[in-house]
Amino acid sequence: MQITTIVWLCLAYMLGLVATGLAIAQPWLGIGLLLVGVAFEFSFRRWWRARLPVWFCLIMAGVALVATLHYQWRLPQPGSTDVSRFVPVLRSREVIVQGVVESLPRLTRSEQMQIWLQVEGLDVGPLAPRLTTSPALARGRLYVTVPPAVGADVHPGLKVKVKGNLYRPQAAKNPDGFDFQQFLRRQNSFAGLRGESLEFEAQPQRWGLWQIQRRIIRAQAVKLPAPEGAMLSAIVLGGRVVDLPFALKDQFAQVGLAHVLAASGFHVALLLNAVLWLTQRLSSRWRFGLGAVALLLFLGLTGLQPSVCRAVVMGFAVLLAVVVDRQVDALRSLLGATTLLLIANPLWMWDLGFQFSVLATLGLIVTVPWLMQGLTWLPQGIAGALAVPIAAFIWTVPLQLHTFGVMSPYSLLVNLSTTPLVIVISLGGILNALLAVLWPVAASWSSLLLHYPIALLLAIVELASRLPGSLVVVGALPLGLMLLLYGLVAVLWIRIDWRQFGWAFGLAGAALVWLPSLHWQNHVTQVTALATRDQPVLVVQDRGKTGLVNSGKARTASLTVLPFLQQQGVSRLDWAIALSRQGQPQDQPTGWQALADRFGLGHLHHVSQAVALPQSQMLAVDRSVKLGRSRGSQVSASPDVLSLRVAKQRWLLFAGLPGRAQPDLVSVSGLQNHQVMWWPGGRLRQSLVGQIQPNVAIAYGRRLDTLTEEMLERQGVQVFWLKRDGAVQWREGKGFRSTLTGVDAKGVLL
C-alpha cells in the first residue's frame, strides 16, 4: 500500500472522529459522511488535484463511518452495578463507600483533595432492603473529594472506606460552561462522592511509579522556597501531577505560558535529545534501549497524558530511525502517531491538551522552515528562537479563541524571552529528578542551583500579567470562523507562491476575529440569569454596554461569571448593582474585587446600607438612574426590589421575598407592568402576582414552591427554575431559552 493511500485513510479516520462533535443525530452521522464523500468526488472531481478514484472515496467514507461507530462503542456507559445506579435512592443519604485508590490526591479549586476510587461495595445501613441490587455488589469508578487533612496520606493501591454523600454530576448549567458530567464520562465515571471522613488500615505498600513521583516532588520542595519547588516539579512532571497554586497557574495561562507547566512534547524532545547526545558513542541498539527506557519512564511519571503519549510515540519513531539510520518524516510521523493513539482511545479526540499538542507540533513542522527563510537576515539561533513561538502561536490561537475567547498580546514576546530559562530549568529539573531518585538529600541541595532561573521566570510572568492589556477579550469564536482561520493557515502551508502575501492573510485573519466580535457587541441585546449556588447573578448586555446585578462570592465570580463574560467578549463592566448580601460583611467585596481585577468596573450601585460596598453609590427609592443604555430604579427598600428596563422589556428583581412582606408590597407603586419576574422561588400571594402581571417568572432559589408554580402556569406564565433548567437567557427578537432543558418561550418576544 502506498504511503499516500495510508495518509488519506488516516485523514478520513480523523474526519470521522471530528464529525462526532457535530450537534446532529448520531445514527445518521455515518450515512451523512458517506453521502458527503460521494457528492464531493462527483462534484469536484474536475478540479480535485488528487483525482482519487470513486471506489477509494467510498472506502474513505467507510473509514470515517467506522471511526464514528468506534467512538460510540468506546464511549463509556455505566454498568448494571455501577455506583451511579444507586444515587437516585441514596441521594442526600450518608453512605460508606469501600474501594481501592487509583491516584495520588490532588488539590481542587474548592480546596478539597480529589482522588479516583475503584468501588468495591457500599454500606448503606438500614436502606439496604429498599435497593433492588445488593449494595455490596456496587462497582465502578468514583470521583471523590475529601478535606485536605483527611486525604493527605492516601496513595494508589490503598483500600479505604469513605463516608459521605453520593451525587450524579451535572451538565453545564450556564452557556458554554464546564460540563462536569461529560468530563467524568470520558474518565469512565458517572458519579461523585462528597467525602467527610476517610479510614484505612495499615497495609503493605505496593511499589509503583507514584512513589518516585512523590520522592521527586518532596526532594525538590525541601530547600527551594514556595512556590519554586512545586513549580520545578510541575515543569518536569507536569501540572497534573503537582499541586501548584491556582493563582500561579492562571498567571502562566494569562501570558501564554500554560504549556510550560504541562508535560508536553517540548519536554519529551529535550529528554530524548539529551539521551541521544549522551549515548552518541554507543551502538544504535544501546541508544534505542536507553532512549526507550527514558521515554517510558517519563510517560509513567507524568501520568499517561494524551499529549505526552503523542510525543512519546513520535519519540519512538526517532529511535527507530536511529537504528535503521534513516531520516524521520516528521509530518507523517505526527499523522501516524495521532492516528494510532486515536484508534487506541478515540475519546482523546476531544481532549483539549491533545488538540493543542497536535496543532503546535504541526505548526513547528510545516511553518518553522518557511518562517526561517524570511528571517535569514538574523543569526540562525535567534531566527530559530523567534520562529518556534510564532509558528506555535499561528496554529494554536484559533483553537484558543474558540475555546476561551481570550488571548495575550504579549504571548510571543514572553515566550521568546523565557525560552532559554525554560530550557535551563527543564534540563536541570530532569537531572535533579534523577538525582532525587538515587539521593534525595543531594537533590534538595542541588535544586538551589535553579533558584535564580526560576525566580527570574516568575518575575517575568508576574510583570507580563500586570501590564496594561495583558489579556485581550474577543469572545468565543464560532466553529465556522475557527475553521475559516485554519483554512487561511492551510493555504499558506500548501501554496508556496502565496506566502509572499502572508501579511494580507494576517490582516484577513485579524478581521475575521475582530469584526464579528465588534458587530456582536454593538448590536446584541440580551439578559442572562446565570445558574449560581450562593447568590443570584444577572448579566445585561445592551448594544455595547454591559451591566451586572450581583457578583456572587469570589469563587462564583471567578469560575462562573468571569468565564461567561469572556465567552461573550465582554472586556468592561459599564455598570453594576449589589442587590443581595454576600455572607459576612467582610466577605462582601470579594466577588466584585475578583471581577474588578480582570475587567474595568464602571458605576457601582447598592440598594441599601446592608450591601454597601467601597466606592459605590446608593440607589434611591423611586428614582430612575441610567445604566448604560438601560434604566433602573429601586421600587422598595424592605424587601429590596429593583426594576430594570432593557430595550422595551421590564424586569422586576427581588433580593428576597418573605411571606410577611408581600401584603405591604401589593400597595407599592411601581410593581405593575413588568414582563419578567425574578424571585427566590418561595410561595407568592396571588394578589402580588396579579399586581405584577408577569409573562415569565424565573426562580433562582434552591427550592421552587410547587403551588406557586402551578398558580403561575394556570395564569399563562412561563416558569423557569435555574436549579432545574440551568441558566435562562432572553435575547431581543428570539425570546427566552434555558440551558439544560432547552425550553423556549418564543411567544414572549416582547
Automatic annotation (TrEMBL):
Membrane topology according to the record: Multi-pass membrane protein
Q: What keywords sit in the KW lines?
A: Cell membrane, Membrane, Transmembrane, Transmembrane helix
Highest taxon of the source?
Answer: Bacteria
Transmembrane: is it a keyword of this entry? yes
Q: Which organism is it from?
A: Romeriopsis navalis LEGE 11480
Q: Which residues form the DUF4131 domain?
A: 27-197
- Where is this protein primarily located? membrane
Q: List the Pfam families.
A: Competence (PF03772), DUF4131 (PF13567)
Q: Does the keyword Membrane apply?
A: yes
> GO terms for CC?
plasma membrane
Q: Which InterPro entries match?
A: ComEC_N, Competence_DNA_uptake, DUF4131
Q: What is this protein called?
A: ComEC/Rec2 family competence protein
Q: Where in the cell is it found?
A: Cell membrane
- Which segments constitute the ComEC/Rec2-related protein domain? 243-497
Segments spanning the bilayer are: 12-40, 52-73, 257-279, 286-302, 308-324, 331-348, 354-371, 383-401, 421-441, 448-465, 471-494, 501-520
Q: Where is the signal peptide?
A: none
